[in-house]
Amino acid sequence: MTTLGAIGATPRLGSTIKKSFGKTPDGQPVDLYVLTNISGAEVSITNYGGAVVSLKVPDRSGKLADVVLGYETADGYVNDKSYFGALVGRYGNRIAHAQFVLDGKTYTLAKNNGENSLHGGIKGFNKAVWAAKVLSTKDGQSLELSYLSKDGEEGFPGNLKVKVIYTLTDANALQIEYSAATDKKTVVNLTNHSYFNLAGQSSGNILGHQLMIQADKFTPVDASLIPTGELRDVAGTPFDFRKSTAIGARIDQEDEQLKLGGGYDHNFVLRRAAGVGESLAARVVEPTTGRVLEVWTTEPGVQFYTGNFLDGKTAGKGGMTYPRRAAFCLETQHYPDSPNQPKFPSVVLNPGERYHTITTYKFSVEK
Ligand code: BGC
Fold first, then answer.
1. Hey, which CATH number is domain 210-365, 2.40.10.10, 3.40.50.300, 3.10.310.50, 2.70.98.10?
2. Which residues pair with 263 in a beta bridge?
3. In the chain, where does the domain assigned CATH 2.70.98.10 lie?
4. Which of 166, 197, 278, 327 has the fewest Cβ atoms within 10 Å of its own Cβ atom?
């Protein structure tokens, strides 16, 4: 065990510990970095897939609980099909027919979700070993992860240099800063796929969590969960979370879109002014523990997913299995299938440009 970001050097900011987390199937060692802040909150991140493995934050009485789903060792992440906590790329969510056109050239991607490409393909960024560096910044302990996605990887054009900095602040926020640069025109959409349960990672379903999403519209989908292109008003639908509402209040309502997603599995169009830095995207309150999660982002959308495909079969942390709807995801992003949807905000990255987005998960409590 190594202590990095030494306590003596920066006493106010907690510390980071590095531990072995196992090996990849081809024998590469991978690590777990445990970052703590001055109030005792703690995040563990592995450089396998850049996944957030655990995240411990206090409830209203100060009791810490781990509020994300995950696995005990690297093997769990090697075999994972749910993207627990992972960094997702090169393209978060779906690209229809695993194909898109840039400057008249058709790029064909791996199909890993029926006819579509999902979350970067068969070997997305969640299955990569990232280079890791511990940083002590003015805001807290940080972990910098870097990855070079080669030209043609999973069918995407351009060598893409990606850097993600996770920072655990002393104010109990987990900030994720993503940047990337390419040497050929490409498409990029990076996100984190943490599954949250604010009552604790093995405490039943999330239907009683109260959710607010700052969105007047969402992007309805077809039967393969590809957006139809419409931006639909949430008003008068079960997708209206403009006022805080229990996640489960309408989830089983007769509704074409809920039926297609098996619950919520939709992109919400965030109400935010362009170029203003991070804005509040969503706020979640867990009434029994008082834990509150706010999601702030520079991104135009958020995928609200209610763990509809979890089936209780995967062995997670502490010997727990995770049943359907045991957690929710709020994946900040550009809209799914943007490369094929000219009316959606562009996901094209040109050589010489810098891809740069920030998302912060802020934790607090409500009495
Ligand atoms: C997608 C879901 C998918 C889940 C896990 C979400 O981002 O929208 O359809 O099942 O990720 O892959």
1. 2.70.98.10
2. none
3. 4-193, 210-365
4. 278
Structural contact between residues 344 and 338, judged by C-beta atoms closer than 8 angstroms: yes
Is residue 175 in contact with ligand 1, taking CB distance under 6 Å?
no
| CA distances, 321 to each of 55, 137, 201 (Å) | 18, 36, 10
What is the distance between the alpha carbons of residues 138 and 18, in angstroms, rounded to a whole number? 20
Measured from the CB, is residue 303 less than 6 Å from ligand 1?
yes
Mutational test site, ligand 1, from 119, 196, 218, 225, max ligand atoms within 8 Å of CB = 119
Mean pLDDT within 177-202: 98
CA distance 24 to 36: 26
Q: CATH number for 4-193: choose from 2.70.98.10, 3.30.450.180, 3.30.70.260, 1.10.1200.10.
A: 2.70.98.10
pLDDT in tens, 5-57: 443 333 345 899 999 999 999 999 999 999 999 988 999 999 999 999 999 99
Give the strand pairing for 99-102 and 42-46.
unpaired
Could you tell me if the CB of 93 is within 6 A of ligand 1?
Answer: yes
3-state secondary structure of 125: helix
Q: Is 320 exposed, middle or buried (0-12, 13-18, 19+ CB in 10 A)?
A: middle
CA distances from 36 to 31, 40, 176, 196, 363 (A): 16, 6, 16, 19, 14
Sign of the Cα torsion 269, 270, 274, 278 reads: negative
Task: Report the C-alpha gap between 301 and 35 in whole angstroms.
Answer: 28
Q: Are 222 and 260 in contact (CB under 8 A)?
A: yes
Q: Distance between CA 270 and CA 237 in Å, rounded?
A: 17
